[in-house]
Design a protein that fits this description.
Helix content: 40-55%
Order of helices and strands: EEHEEHEEEEEHHHHHEEEEEHH
Number of helices: 9
Number of strands: 14
Largest sheet: 5 strands, mixed
CATH architecture: 4-Layer Sandwich
Strand order of the largest sheet: 1-3-5-7-6
Shape: globular
Low-confidence stretches: none
CATH topology: Purple Acid Phosphatase, chain A, domain 2
Structural class: alpha/beta
Mean pLDDT: 84
Length: 282
């Protein structure tokens, strides 16, 4: 299973849906394909609730039960790249991964920001864009509420603005071509990435291109079946289902009281190290 761009710590992300998804789905391997935590949110913009704690605890619980979990940091959680080749509560932090499907296809797993020249050359504009997304998400909340009342399909102002920018950006227009050309050069059968927040599958330059989307709005992931076939999952449960699964997650967490004190201490220490690393990077 492949998940990316959860942006935990950013207010307005679909953390309740992500928790419900993780609570109701298991896998032999889980790849966290970057931007799981959004460390670009600082100070008062940092939004961390019980739900985010439950998500982390759910992943650690899966790892303790034998699920292999690989964390590939992205540009929003790049401070974790200093921790590559280490494990935290059974979750292995790595720069990139190679995944072999059940039917023998060799896939390259990366976040994808490596091929975003805009981020490499205009970091300050990226931070400005990040602030703009937060503002648009805030403006969109009453719009989303009205659309739900009218039983209209989901629509996001932030997503619409992002898509418009991507359509007019040479970097994003060439993104799939650039990523797949490099995957082909390296001899892979396909590539799985995130970063651009657009769940998609296509074959380009002779290799498979999979993007697992995001958990800001689209709530998508990629899953591999026992026979090696893969599909993009769009998770849209009922509110009652989300509430039920959240209660189950809380119950599971309450059975791990001895773990919580230890985890809280280690996470605080990790946060402090991330902040120091982020200050150096910025």
């Amino acid at each position: 299973m492949f998940i990316s761009d959860c942006h935990l710590g950013l207010k307005g992300v679909q953390s309740n849906k992500l928790l419900a998804f993780l609570q109701s789905n298991d896998a032999e391997k889980i790849y966290l394909v970057g931007d799981i935590v959004d460390h670009w949110c600082k100070g008062k913009k940092w939004h961390w609730t019980e739900t985010e704690d439950l998500i982390i605890q759910n992943l650690i619980s899966k790892a303790n039960k034998g699920t292999k979990i690989y964390y590939i940091p992205g540009n929003h959680d790049e401070a974790f790249r200093d921790w590559c080749s280490t494990k935290i509560h059974g979750i292995e932090i790595i720069k990139q991964a190679e995944h072999t499907t059940a039917d023998g296809r060799n896939l390259w797993v990366i976040h994808g920001d490596e091929f975003d020249l805009f981020i490499k050359n205009h970091r300050w504009l990226c931070h400005l864009g990040h602030f703009s997304v937060q503002l648009l998400m805030k403006i969109n909340r009453p719009i989303a509420w009205i659309r739900r009342l009218l039983k209209l399909p989901n629509w996001s102002l932030a997503t619409a603005a992002r898509r418009a920018m991507q359509r007019n950006s040479k970097t994003f227009k060439n993104y799939v071509n650039t990523v797949t050309r490099e995957a082909a050069r390296l001899g892979y059968d396909g590539v799985v990435c995130g970063h651009i927040h657009k769940a998609e599958f296509q074959v380009k330059n002779g290799v498979e291109y999979w993007n697992d989307g995001d958990w800001l709005e689209s709530c998508t992931a990629i899953a591999e079946a026992m026979d090696g076939t893969m599909e993009i999952l769009e998770y849209s449960p009922k509110i009652s289902t989300i509430s039920l699964l959240r209660e189950r997650a809380k119950q599971s967490a309450s059975n791990q009281q001895s773990f919580e004190a230890e985890f809280s201490l280690e996470f605080d220490e990790l946060e402090a190290k991330m902040e120091r690393a982020a200050e150096v990077i910025v």
